[in-house]
Each structure stands twice: as C-alpha cells, then as structure tokens.
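Apologies for my clumsy wording, but are you able to produce some protein sequence, whichever is easiest, and the tokens describing how it folds?
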Amino acid sequence: MLIAVSLSLLAIFSFYDVILQVVALVHAEDMTQGILGVLHALLLTLIIVEILETVTAYFRTNRVLVTPILIAGITAMVRRVLTFGVEPLEPVDIGMTLVAILVLTIAIVYIGKQERVDSR
C-alpha cells in the first residue's frame, strides 16, 4: 500500500511538473525545446501512472499484469527517441532503441491475443 501511495504522490508531482513546463513553454524563446520539455514531463507522468496501474491491479487481482509494464517500457523508449536530436548518438543506439520498441509492441500484441484466448 505504501508503494501505491508513493507512486500516487509521485504522479501528482510529475503532473505538476507538466503544468510548470507548459507555463514555461508560453515564455520560451526556443519553442522546440519547450515542446520537448513538455513531452518529456508528460511521458514521465504516463510511465508513473502505468506503474501505479500495475500495483493497483495487483492489489485487486493478486496477479501481476504485464501489459501496463510493457506500455511503460514503450513510453520510456519513445521518450528516448525524442532526445535523439538533443544528444549525440551512434546509429547502433538508435537501432537498438527502435528494436526495443518493436519487441515491446510485439509482446503487447501477443499477450493481448493470449488474454483473449484465455478469457473464452
């Protein structure tokens, strides 16, 4: 329960950061960097919410749901893709990130099919 409360507080603070980033975007000189800042903060909030969903689903069902964890992984990889223009990266890093997104997406599709078969 302590984890759920901690994640809830973290999500609230993270959403507050999103609001601060949007306010900073209005006054930003470089609109591209401002938008990237808002997206990073928003995606971080989504990752926290997905992890919180996993914890609360565990309390409800006594099972660990994998799909929210995979969605959080994809969100983290998308956050990384957004920084490609900001950080100098090797092509191998870009390729591995894209492969990770592909693998996580395939895993979500596969698990979704398995859940539909199991629910019949």
Summary: Helices lie at 2-27, 31-61, 66-82, 91-118. The mean pLDDT is 85. The longest helix spans residues 31-61. The two ends are 32 Å apart (CA to CA).
